Amino acid sequence: MIGDNIKFFRKKAKMTQMELAQKANISRSYLADVERNRYNPSFDTLKAIASALNVPISSLIGEEDAKNPNRDTQLPELTEKDERDIAKDLQRIMESLESCEGLMYDGEPMDEETRELIRISLENSMRLAKKIAKRKFTPKKYRK
What is the pTM of this model? Predict the structure, then answer.
């Protein structure tokens, strides 16, 4: 998370929150909230923090955790039940969209290709959301 990375580089630079906040021209309380991952800073704020810490922005927003670059960032696999649930929900959503003329553009019905693209996009989003939820809400003792 971005906040964890900011905190890591701040401590590595032996700076207090107050010092970093002053150098980045932001409030200390906002910085504390960012470090706790309560807020996502804007690009300009990230740029100011990175400049104050003397690190590239990519280090702050990197996919890997700065404290532990070798940690497992893989999302859990979906079970057969998860796959069935996604298929059932996807079918229900598509039927709902088609039945209430939700798939129209400027009063014209969507063509079959566009409908399929929407279905694929929804399916991918649902799969990703399910995987993220599994990682987020599975207790550590049950993770593989």
Answer: 0.46
